Phosphoglycerate mutase
Amino acid sequence: MPRLIILRHGQSTWNDQNLFTGWVDVPLNERGTSEATKAGKLMTKHECLPDTLYTSLLRRAITTANIALDNCDRHWIPVKRAWQLNERHYGGLQGKNKAEAAEKFGKEQVHLWRRSYDVPPPENEQDGNTDPDGRYAKGGIKVPKTECLKDVLVRVLPYWESDIVPDLKAGKTVLVAAHGNSLRALMKHLENISDEDIPGVEIPTGVPILYELDDNLKPKGGAKGKHLD
């Protein structure tokens, strides 16, 4: 029986500072490290031990996965990293304080940029360049100038079909450690969540969510993902 575990990274330093993060590569803070440790122990407790791991190219997801796997003794499993699993690019909002952005642009406008399905924030003033170490340029990846959730879905689903689905069809338990929006895009697909309802979906940091899938790789009985706690 294929099983999918999705895990949003633990709290980062910028989460704690209430900053828009997006593709900026920030580390976990102390709380985030603790959340990742607990995630690994929860996977052991519930006997949900992954056979393979997928992460984004951002360290907060990578570190969360590494710590979690170390705490469930699965540090040795195969790993694939993909930019398609990155957080959404917040464009010109990246690095800005969320409360200050609300004062500048208005609460309703910022809420629309943050939570709507198809309204992206303003473009990045630096031409969308969030590639200080060249990781994207070296891979021929064009960094977006801004993204909405709909844009994230467009990049996540082809990768899901090409890379993750074959592992699930082989009966493996797959762990995807990524971000709030890339995982919400995946949840939208799995649970057939409407465009109108997806803005209200929240994914907690550091909590593994388990999907037991049928032969069509849909949640059995139409069930929602189970939070492991």
